[in-house]
Amino acid sequence: xxxxxxxxxxxxxxxxxxxxxxxxxxxxxxxxxxxxxxxxxxxxxxxxxxxxxxxxxxxxxxxxxxxxxxxxxxxxxxxxxxxxxxxxxxxxxxxxxxxxxxxxxxxxxxxxxxxxxxxxxxxxxxxxxxxxxxxxxxxxxxxxxxxxxxxxxxxxxxxxxxxxxxxxxxxxxxxxxxxxxxxxxxxxxxxxxxxx
Length: 196
Description:
Strand content: 35-45%
Distance between the termini: 12 Å
Structural class: mainly beta
Number of strands: 12
């Protein structure tokens, strides 16, 4: 997994896409979304009655990421796993390439993993959320249409970084083959490794 930080990638943090800026929403420390410091984050807050969907994005104007990778964000909701399903219904991740939207996923189509941030220790509500892409992209966008309805009581999310996970593709960007392993009988344990 590669966090898209400004020290390692030519990335830009943006608020809103296509002029859709939520006038009564707040974004604080936008540049922290591309910061290499693991404790820095941007915060986005939705306010009841917002008519447009707030969104933030990380764009790489130089490089394109291959289809089949997982595109997403490391976020902190301050909530625990009990509201995770509701939270996912309140978030949408989209990819773009050369200014055109490639695809969007939300709800149960998002992959979520609890994250342990090394400098922060285990944090309640810190997740990697994303999805396996089907097209090439240079921008990852997080849309937050329904936080107040998703049991995120204060309507805010902290965003650490965007990320690209290459574990689903090989070094040429081709999809990794599916591997089926069948274990039968006994109590032997084996460690399997794959050159990725």
